[in-house]
Amino acid sequence: MGRYPFKLVTFDVNGTLLKPKGAIGQTYAQFARRRGLSVDPQILDGGFRVAYKSMSRNHPNFGQAGLQWKCWWQAVVRETFKSAIGLADEKKLSQIDVVTDDLIKHFSTGESWEIENGALEVLERLKNNSVGLGVVSNTDPRLHGILDDLRMAKYFVFVLTSYEAKVAKPDVQIFLHARDAYSRISGTGPECESILHVGNSYDLDYLGAKRAGWQGILVNCKDPVTDPGCLSFGNLKDLDDHFVKLGCD
Questions:
Q1: What percent of the chain has pLDDT over 70?
Q2: What local confidence, expressed as pLDDT, does residue 17 receive?
Q3: What DSSP element (H or E) covers 125?
Q4: What is the pLDDT, as a whole number, of residue 189?
Q5: DSSP three-state, residue 116
Q6: Residue 116 · residue 18 · CB < 8 Å
Q7: Per-residue model confidence as pLDDT tens digits over 76-94
Q8: CB contact set of 199 (below 8 Å; sequence gap of 6+)
Q9: Which of 102, 129, 136, 223 is deepest in the core (most CB within 10 A)?
Q10: How far apart are CA 221 and CA 224, in angstroms?
Q11: SS3 158
């Protein structure tokens, strides 16, 4: 076994370890058809982006401080469909409520998510090298059930969602909460410089981790990167190869 420099490695989830199965618009349209609604998937895609951005701005962190996560997502889904069918058809609007509940249940299970290529291999390698693993993700509490369904929860010492932490990346506090959670469960408190966070967002993951005194690495990142010292890999297989070079057998 090589001498690996990190005691704890945390991962972002959406876009890093997991991705939704299919485009959001396609999934929404599919569930709408089951309830007798025909909606253009491309319009739903655009409507979702607008609704998600608006709700995130007006009710941050999935409505944690007020709406609560389920009502937050209900509002996002309803606004997404309203952008596609308009506001005049009362019958369709009532059908949307049923579709909304269907979609919230669907995205609460592992069935709606796909494990990124190389994710299990990199987790296995780190775990086999006695590296502590955790999750730090801007999402709601459904993540716990999703990881259970996908049989991935076994890899992690802790899973911390922004909703439960009451603070979201890139705020330094969520990274401090993560370190505290690991220390409390494992009985050891790693130094900040021996903690690595892996994610796909330059601002949320890399810069957030660096401000907390941690190390950061990007995977599948589409953002412009301005720090010349930032390591960024196109996929998890390349990240796994990097860990091997660092001493992970």
A1: 96
A2: 98
A3: helix 119-128
A4: 85
A5: coil
A6: yes
A7: 999 999 888 875 566 677 7
A8: 11, 12, 15, 16, 169, 205, 206, 209, 216, 218, 219
A9: 136
A10: 8
A11: strand
* Residue among 67, 96, 69, 68 nearest 83 (CA): 96
Within the chain, strands assigned E span 8-11, 18-20, 113-115, 132-137, 158-161, 195-199, 215-219, 231-233
168, 61 Cβ separation under 8 angstroms: yes
Residue 54: what residue type?
S
Task: Give the model's pLDDT for residue 89.
Answer: 63
Q: For residue range 120-166, what is the model confidence (pLDDT) as tens digits? A: 999 999 999 999 999 999 999 999 999 999 999 999 999 999 999 99
* pLDDT tens-digit readout, 175-203: 999 999 999 999 888 999 999 999 999 99
What residues does each domain of the chain span?
A: 8-17+116-246, 21-111
**Class of the CATH domain delimited by 8-17+116-246:** alpha beta
The tokens describing 184, both together, are 């409390």
Q: Domain 21-111 belongs to what topology?
A: DNA polymerase; domain 1 (1.10.150)
Q: Quickly state the pLDDT bin for 2 (edges 50, 70, 90).
A: very low
User: Long-range contacts for 171-175 (Cβ within 8 Å, ≥24 apart)?
Assistant: 171/208, 172/208, 172/211, 172/212, 174/136, 174/208, 175/136, 175/208, 175/209, 175/211, 175/212, 175/214
147: tokens are: 């990881």
Helix pair angle (69-85, 90-106), 10° resolution: 130
Q: Which amino acid is it at 245?
A: K
Encoded tokens for 185: 């469960």
Strands 8-11, 195-199: pairing is parallel
